[in-house]
Queue: 3 jobs
Job 1
Amino acid sequence: MQITRLQLRRLRRFDELDFLPGPGLNLIIGDNGAGKTSVLEAMHLMAYGRSFRGRVRDGLIQAGAPALEVFVEWQERTTGRVRRGGLRHSGQAWEGRLDGAPVAQLSDLCAALAVVTFEPGSHALITGAAEHRRRYLDWGLFHVEQAFLPYWRRYARALRQRNALLKAGGGDGQLDAWDRELADAGEAIARHRDAYLDALAPAVDAMAAELAPMLGGVRLEHAPGWRRESMPLADALLLARDRDRQTGYTSVGPHRADWRIAFGALPGREALSRGQAKLTALAALLAQAAHYARVRGEWPVVALDDLASELDARHRLRVLRHLASNGAQVFVTGTEAPPLDDLPAPPLLFHVEQGRLSPVR
């Protein structure tokens, strides 16, 4: 997958931007605060429906503007098909188009463009709240397993209805109906997540051995959101019903799921250092990108924000060589161009200053 054009309007420092990146490594350099990260944010927004630096209404839209606009044109390398997506977001409401047609759900737009992002907050994938790890699983499944999205939508709808009934004091008959829907979709989600983690495990282990060998071999452990080893989800929902009535929300199910990486060289739950957490998160993200490539036949776009501050020179060069050797399109931001040797092709260099991005000759 290759982004061939990125256009922005009213996004942070950029009044307008028309960016034509290259197919390989694209280095975007500039001073701190110049807007380098905003370019990656725009790609991430189109691919995830949100920024990796907070909500759209919290500073992403340029001051005084009613909305921001992002347009992305990309090519699917396996088919040669050129696709186009556009998003207008006011912070409260959004409008999207994909290949010339309006989209009814933001997830439809996000499922079309695949971007894997590593940025200064990515260590939350390992050390942060469970929601970060659920998003990681679900992003991968949206892109490699077509059957997953309908189950996810069914579960989300049933969860909203059950929670509304719990808060309104709904009767057992009403709750029984939504429990059946929740259990059916939830069991399917858990099975898909199990299978996805099993498929990812060898790649995560290989990448972790490359980036952080001091941690030993790794394994991925899934906690599906209820005591699945002892009861089906339908029984867990019924058992939790009285407690859920008191709290007004559903306390068991895949929306409460989590997963963790267990390390061979770390006994029990010995804490990772911040640097180890960053390397582990990067290993998980690169493994996810590699798994996407195996299933879909092409790499997703890879965006690496402020890479020099996150990785030392040795790890940085190792990662970029790995991605370049696999033909991935990569975007890297930094305050200066790092020394890059032995890459299959020279990178393209772009400079950001005062809301403008220009190629460096």
Note: The CA atoms of residues 140 and 288 lie 7 Å apart.
Job 2
Amino acid sequence: MQRHGSGGSAAIRLRAAGLILLIAHLLLVGWLTLRPLDVMWVTAANLEPFAGIRADLALGPVEAAVRIGEGLLLLAPLGVLLPMAGGRLDVSPWVSLARTVLAAALLSLGIELLQTAVPGRVVDVDALLLNTTGVALAHLAVVPAWRGRLRRRRRPSAGGGSRGRGAGVLRDDAPQGATPRIPRVGIAP
């Protein structure tokens, strides 16, 4: 049986906060990307990778920075909120990055596909690329350091006291002494 001290309740609160923030962010993204636009004409769908980014760069450095920045920042909080809502501390950084980026790419793809049914919106493959890149950058910038800090806080202190989750719990990697030996007993005839 696993005992949770103050570290366990803090982890639960952190995970709950992550879920609430994730839902709030997804609602905001849905409102920003799936509401109809009142426009006179609509551009054609962009299915050629980097064509929209090249067009943005042709508009000048300031306009390109704004448009590319918007694409990078739209889903970037998911790079932190998805692992936070997951609540796992002991996971490989590469697995966490791959899982988060894949989830964000699928979400971005879903948004792009839903936009085909919204007046004034079109599919843009560059939006998918920028959204996914933004999530990966946010994840790499925040999550490894954040998890490391939480893991250090969770470990028992060197002075023998206990802090955080896992204190007083028998761990699989802790030494547990020698293997017991049973003396051989002969079998009766």
Note: The radius of gyration is 25 Å.
Job 3
Amino acid sequence: MRFVIVTGMSGAGKSSVLKFLEDINFFCVDNLPPALIPKLAELCYEQEGEIERVAMGVDIRGGKLFNDLFNVLFILEEKGYQYEIIFLDASDNTLIKRYKETRRSHPLSRKGAIEDGILQEREMLKEVKGRATYILDTTNVLTRELKAQINRIFMENQQFESLIITVCSFGFKYGIPVDSDLVFDVRFLPNPFYIQELKEMTGNDTPVSDYVMSFQESRDFLKKLVEMVEFLLPLYVKEGKNSLVISIGCTGGKHRSVTLANALYHALDQDKHTLLLKHNDIEKDARHKKQS
């Protein structure tokens, strides 16, 4: 039987994950007091195959009862019940934004600042995060991408890496993305902007990408970049890092950076890694022209 505890930061996507698990035939229970988990596990194991997948949502809404979680995990281990923990996380700024958009208050800051509640919750969850089987960072993840991650783990049984890699293109004239971990400047490559028939296209268009990649320096850069990223990824995973943003920039974020971001995204192992692709500034030149 697969017995899964879903927990993590409030606003990070726990309810969505429980829904996705329910869609793939998990028996799901939300906001269960931790003290009742061993009893539920016992009942499920007694069904002798009738219930093969169980998921429970546990979070700090349980108040003091949440503190019982570690005692409960010890009881499960004593009884020989195997379990997995999914921990949902997101950056503080993302959580604050989500709370403001939904106009909801944080469970720990009903009369105070959302930031204070998040800080307090992070401290409370530090130990359980350290014991998690899977850490899913939803900062830059769309709902459909989060669902795909859950399916990869529980339907396709693929090996899980908690590191989510976002490959991002941007334009230096609009600023380096603030969440960047690695930044690469490709302004040394020939610029399609100065070729009339390519100027209005983007790196998503074949004529532009073919032009950029026709130069030996582009191909050499991509080869060395892929080698370096593949060298770094297992080291980041070993360190416990769960989100990596690789930003590639050119002048306007429309031609060269888009081409190389696409190329890096497709060069990395899609089955082994959780990969996201973003083009931050690809449409900004067109919008600025309309405004002017």
Note: The first strand starts at residue 2 and ends at 8.
